[in-house]
Fold this protein.
Amino acid sequence: MKILVINCGSSSLKFQLIDSETEELTAKGLCERIGIAGSRISYTLTGHEKRKWDAPMADHKDAVRLMLQTLTNPEDGAVKELSEIGAVGHRVVHGGEHFSEATLITPQVKEAIMECTVLAPLHNPANLQGIEDCELQLPGVPQVAVFDTAFHQTMDEEAYLYAIPYRYYKQFGIRRYGFHGTSHQYVSRRAADILGKPYESLKLIICHLGNGASVSAIKDGRCIDTSMGLTPLEGLVMGTRSGDVDPGVLEMMAGKDGKNIHEVVRILNKESGVLGLSDGFSSDFRDLEDAYLEGNNPAATRAIKAFVLRVAKYIGAYAAELNGADAICFTAGIGENSPVIRELICSPYLEHLGVELDKEANNIRGKERIVSTPSAKTKVLVIPTNEELEIARHTLAIVKGK
């Protein structure tokens, strides 16, 4: 079976076609600037050169139509007919408390996704639009929703509740949900494979470090805590997001700078993190790392050190919560590709946990490897994430079981 994996953003549509038997990527692409002048598509059939071209796309319906036309193109399409696509797996950012696992999409499921729009106003409407457009253009093909938040629904209430009046949770669902769940699940399962141990017997700390970043604690195959909260703003210092901040800061920012709450939250989301700490130098960790290594940019050094410290603090906290860890896993753009950041986090902050980094093994980018010494009590792994494959796996399981 060929499974089409779709990730719809407000003005974009990413897609991959995956063979469910071999789990190999058949083709992938990206529709950009949907509904905006200059819309375009990029497409790669595995084993061939990437193609890019301009293509008018007034809305997501046009993008889905163009995607399907591209996949069936006689010259470099991945399938001869659309009937070869057996199912579609959709990334949906927020499932609230409705969903603790992937689910076959029904009218009731779409209603629940819409209800969660208040929790993810920028993402859920776009995700739902992609679902409805695929239903329209692929009638009869099973559609499956895979939620970023679902993997974290195993947290106990002491981990997900905020210490605010309980009525806010009961009336409005204000609690910690966590994000990047599909990545955390894929990487934690892959870690068990690499370590050769049962997934249900391990204590793992997963560090998904990219422009958006989160850490999770996995015990016996279930997530018991994660750094992001009601929104992706909580937790680590990120590219442009502040991460954890005293709520009193919001009041002071508003009062001193004449901002309303919406403007303050926008600043915390768009102008903070390493961008803010570096005084506007960059939100791109590659730029910051280069400047840090050159040693003549105090602003970049400040940002890198703050990011590293926050990650180490969360790892330490989760090691306490887990009562030790079998392994710490690094993934996503920074976690997979920055030996420098990994080393700064592991040494000296994590040595008390039995972490011993092998500097030679750690000198890799984008490759799967154990990068700790053979004698290390706590193993350190680099595992490239594959959220699309995880979505395809969930989709296949739902379709087979329906």
About this structure: The longest helix spans residues 298-322. The radius of gyration is 21 Å. The CA atoms of residues 308 and 394 lie 33 Å apart.
